[in-house]
Design a protein that fits this description.
With 433 residues, this protein is of the alpha+beta class. Helices cover 33% and strands 26% of the residues. Strands 5, 6, 7, 8, 9, 10, 11, 12, 13 and 14 form a 10-stranded mixed sheet that branches. Strands 2-1-3-4 form a 4-stranded mixed sheet. Helix 3 packs across helix 4, helix 5 crosses helix 7 and helix 8 packs across helix 9. The chain starts with 8 loop residues before the first helix and ends with a strand. The model has no long low-confidence stretch (mean pLDDT 93).
Length: 433
C-alpha cells in the first residue's frame, strides 16, 4: 500500500481495523510503519538496496520521522513527505473539528448526542477503489473512524452520552470543508388538555378567504378565530424551551362549539429546535393554565418521544364518551326514550361523510360502533344523552340524521325531529389509561 500511495497513520491502520485489540487505527498505523522501518534499517545495515528503498518509502509515503532520521544519519537523501492519498491530511484537524462542535453545542441543552460525518463523493469513491485494489478484508470506513474519534472526544469534554437510536442532538461534521452543523431533534411534551369553554378550535384555523395572509374578513389576523387550544399551549411552551416553532398532535379533535371535559384529551406538543430541554413541566403547566384564564387547562405533562406521536394518532379511533343535550320538536314519552336507549346500544351505524365537512373530507361511508347509550330526561321535549362509541362517529349527525347520510339516527328512530343543543366530550379512552 505504502509503495503505491502515501498514507497517514489513521488511514493505514484503518485497513486493518478489525485485527488486534485495544488499539486505535492511528496506533495500528504507527506500529506497522515502525515494523517496516526496523525491517528497512536491518536490510540497510546489511548493505542491501531494498533496505534503503524501504526506508525512503516510509519517510515519504509514510511520513515516518524515524525512517527520515535513519536516512539522514546514514547520509542518504530524504525525499519530501507526501499528503495522505485517502484523507488528504484531514485527520490532523480532529481537534479543530471537536472544538468547533463544542462551541456550537454550547447554545443547547441536551443529554445525548450522535456524530454524523459527511464526506465528498470523490473521497468515498477513492476509498472504495483503494479497498478493492488491495483486497482489504479487515478494514473499516473513513466515515466510521471520523465519527468514533470525534464522538469520543466530544463525550470526554461535554460529559454527555452517545446515543445511536434517539439522540437529542446530531452533530454533522464535514472534515473536508470543516463545516459543523447541528440537527437539534424535537422535544415532545405529552399531557391532556381540557377545553372549558365553547368557541375555541383545537388548532390554529386559517382564514378561508386569505389563507393566513390577512384580509378584511379576518381583520388582518389571517385566522378565523383569535385563539386556539394549540396556540394557548404553544405560547408559554416556546418561551420556556426557546424553540423555533411547535407542532400540535392530539388523539382526535372536538368541534369548535364542543367542550372537552373529564380527564381531558391526550396531546403532544412538539417543540422544534429547543435550546432548553430540561424544563420544569409543573411550572410550565402552571404558566399555561394561568395565561389560559380558565379557557383551557393542561395536566399530567411529561416528556414523550416520536413513537408516542404515532400511538396518539392511532388513538383517534379510540373509544369516546360524549354528553349531548337534544331538543325534540315534540314531547317524547318514557316508552320512546326507553326504546331509543335500547336501540342505541351495541349498534353499528353507517355514516356517510357529513355535509358540513364534505368540503375537506372524502365522501365515503364509515361504519362506527355505539357501545352504550344512557338517556336522562330534562324536559318533556329535551333529554341528555351519554354515548360511548367508537372514535370518529359524528355525534351531531347521529342526532339529526344529516339528511339520511347517517343511518340509523335519533330523528329516524323516534320519528321526531331532533336537534343537538350542546355537545361535550367527557372522555377519550386511551389503551392502558
Amino acid at each position: 500500500m505504502l509503495e503505491k500511495h502515501p498514507l497517514c497513520n489513521h488511514c493505514l491502520g484503518r485497513q486493518f481495523a478489525l485485527l488486534g485489540y485495544g488499539l486505535d487505527n492511528k496506533k495500528r498505523g504507527e506500529a506497522l510503519k515502525l515494523m517496516l522501518t526496523m525491517k528497512g534499517h536491518k536490510l540497510a545495515l546489511l548493505r542491501e538496496k531494498a533496505g534503503v528503498s524501504l526506508l525512503k518509502t516510509m519517510a515519504t509515503n509514510g511520513s515516518f520521522d524515524m525512517a527520515a532520521e535513519i536516512l539522514r544519519k546514514t547520509k542518504k537523501r530524504v525525499g519530501k513527505r507526501r499528503e495522505c492519498h485517502l484523507c488528504e491530511g484531514q485527520f490532523k484537524l480532529l481537534q479543530e473539528l471537536v472544538d468547533s462542535s463544542v462551541e456550537k453545542l454550547q447554545d443547547y441543552e441536551y443529554g445525548t448526542f450522535l456524530v454524523g460525518i459527511e464526506l465528498p463523493t470523490n473521497v468515498e469513491e477513492r476509498e472504495d477503489e483503494f479497498k478493492a485494489e488491495f483486497a482489504v478484508k479487515h478494514g473499516e470506513s473513513m466515515r466510521n473512524e471520523f465519527s468514533r474519534n470525534i464522538g469520543k472526544k466530544l463525550s470526554e469534554i461535554t460529559q454527555k452520552t452517545t446515543e445511536y437510536a434517539k439522540p437529542e442532538v446530531v452533530v454533522l461534521v464535514n472534515p473536508f470543508t470543516k463545516q459543523v452543523t447541528l440537527q437539534v431533534n424535537p422535544l415532545y411534551i405529552m399531557g391532556r388538555y381540557k377545553k372549558l369553554i365553547r368557541g375555541i378550535p383545537q388548532s390554529k384555523w386559517l382564514c378561508s378567504e386569505c389563507r393566513g395572509k390577512g384580509c378584511p374578513r379576518c381583520n388582518g389576523t389571517g385566522k378565523m378565530y383569535s385563539e386556539s387550544v394549540e396556540e394557548i399551549i404553544a405560547g408559554p411552551t416556546l418561551q420556556k424551551t426557546c424553540g423555533e416553532e411547535t407542532a400540535f398532535h392530539a388523539a382526535g379533535r372536538e368541534d369548535v362549539d364542543a367542550r372537552m371535559l373529564g380527564p381531558g384529551r391526550p396531546f403532544i406538543i412538539e417543540v422544534k429546535k429547543p435550546k432548553k430541554r430540561f424544563i420544569n413541566l409543573q411550572n410550565l403547566a402552571r404558566t399555561i393554565n394561568k395565561q389560559a384564564e380558565d379557557k383551557v387547562k393542561v395536566l399530567n405533562l411529561c416528556v414523550a418521544d416520536r413513537d408516542m406521536v404515532r400511538k396518539l394518532k392511532k388513538a383517534e379511533a379510540a373509544q369516546k364518551i360524549y354528553k349531548v343535550i337534544v331538543e325534540f320538536d315534540r314531547n317524547i314519552s318514557d316508552e320512546e326514550l326507553e326504546a331509543l336507549e335500547k336501540t342505541l346500544t351495541n349498534l353499528l351505524v353507517h355514516q356517510q361523510t357529513p355535509l358540513r365537512v364534505l368540503h375537506r373530507r372524502a365522501d365515503r361511508i364509515r361504519e362506527k360502533h355505539i357501545y352504550t347509550t344512557k338517556i336522562k330526561r330534562l324536559k318533556p321535549s329535551r333529554v341528555e344523552m351519554r354515548i360511548r362509541c367508537q372514535g370518529g362517529l359524528y355525534i351531531k349527525e347521529l342526532i339529526t340524521g344529516d339528511e339520511g347520510r347517517t343511518d340509523p339516527n335519533v330523528t329516524k328512530i323516534v320519528n321526531a325531529k331532533a336537534k343537538p343543543l350542546e355537545l361535550d366530550v367527557l372522555n377519550v379512552v386511551m389503551e392502558g389509561s
